Amino acid sequence: MLDYKYYQGGGLDHIVLLHGIGGNSQIFYKQIDEYKKKFNVLAIHLPGHGKSPDTDAYEKKFTYDLVVEEIGKIMDLLGIREAHFVGISLGSIIIHHILQKEPERVISVVLGGTITGFNLFSKTLLLMGRLIKGVTPFMLVYSLFAHIMMPKRNHKKSRELFIREAQKMKKTNFLSWFDLIRNADTTYQTVQETSGNIPKLYISGDEDHLFVKVLEKDIKGDANAQMIILNHCGHVCNIERPQEFNLASLTFIEKHRRVSEEVG
């Protein structure tokens, strides 16, 4: 069973938080207090993070399908039929796969630092990572990627938080996720067909240079997708620009809340 933190808040609706690789619920420290004023909040630690099982602890092969199943088990345990989902980076990848596999679970989504695919530069980085991952300490690989993904001075807080939290990961867990992320594009392939009616808000920084252009192109055909680009902001926009992120995400989620629906 995945590790999670549950915050009883206001109203009947739930917000489910999904973090990035190497992170945990700590990356939402600037959102949780605001969210729980009006919503119940469930922060889930993905496999290999926090106190959740290691990625190799499952009888099944470690896949996106397995991760979605495990998230569903936590929601079932807590009696949550459906929820608003907020994800950052890897969290956005997982939420897209939920939209493909279990769209009935989703009321609305807010996705920050979203990854739908890779440009030529990021594909080259992933290839380099695959070549050196077996002979290089994984934290060196992670730190290198963090500095390339979040290179500027205003990205420092996000970069340092992710590196610090990633140091708590086991190498096997990091490498499992690294291998899975290479196929991130598969989690968006049918999103517009399976969940075209589900409201989606994408929030990205204009300095999220590895992913934002690919994202803009990919979501053009989704009539229920909105996008906000934050100026002078990098990949982890909820940490770099928390006030703007909180205002935009809460306004969006409140617009789509199911106030009259009982959960459980």
Descriptive account of the structure:
Mean pLDDT is 92; it is low at 260-264. The protein has helices at 32-35, 64-77, 90-101, 120-132, 138-149, 156-166, 171-181, 191-194, 212-218, 237-240, 242-255; strands at 4-7, 14-18, 40-44, 83-88, 106-112, 200-205, 225-230. With 264 residues, it is of the alpha/beta class. Strand 4, helix 3 (90-101) and strand 5 (106-112) form a beta-alpha-beta unit. The longest helix is centred in the N-terminal third of the chain and has 14 residues, at 64-77. The protein has a seven-stranded mixed sheet with strand order 1-3-2-4-5-6-7, with helices on both faces. It is built from eleven helices and seven strands. Helix 2 (64-77) packs across helix 3 (90-101) and helix 5 (138-149) runs antiparallel to helix 6. It has a single domain, classed as 3-Layer(aba) Sandwich (Rossmann fold).
Strands, helices and their partners?
Elements: E1 4-7, E2 14-18, H1 32-35, E3 40-44, H2 64-77, E4 83-88, H3 90-101, E5 106-112, H4 120-132, H5 138-149, H6 156-166, H7 171-181, H8 191-194, E6 200-205, H9 212-218, E7 225-230, H10 237-240, H11 242-255
Parallel strand pairs: 2-3, 2-4, 4-5, 5-6, 6-7
Antiparallel strand pairs: 1-3
Summarize the structure.
The protein contains eleven helices and seven strands. With 264 residues, it is an alpha/beta fold.
